[in-house]
Write a structure and sequence with these properties.
flat; mainly alpha; single chain
């Protein structure tokens, strides 16, 4: 019985955090702009918002979402790898 309650509480917490995450993303990228994918990392979504806000509202289309996703994800991963490389060099 206690295990069921724990699972239910975990699900509720997960739903709550995902809904607050969705609200935050909507604030980052206004509805008029092309929206990021739901499963993208927060840093990638922030970069997405920065990129799409740089151009006119109708500059990007839904057909370009996969390209924007690849770009933002690659840049964020590059930043993370670069930061790790720099910090490992400092330790030497």
């Amino acid at each position: 019985m206690a295990a069921k309650r724990k699972k239910a509480a975990k699900r509720k917490a997960s739903k709550s955090s995902s809904s607050s995450r969705a609200r935050r993303r909507r604030r980052l990228v206004p509805a008029a702009f092309v929206q990021p994918y739901d499963d993208m990392a927060d840093e990638a979504v922030e970069l997405w918002a920065e990129v799409v806000r740089t151009y006119a509202v109708d500059y990007f289309t839904n057909g370009q979402r996969p390209l924007l996703r690849s770009y933002c994800t690659t840049i964020v991963l590059t930043w993370a790898r670069s930061a790790g490389f720099r910090s490992s060099n400092l330790a030497e």
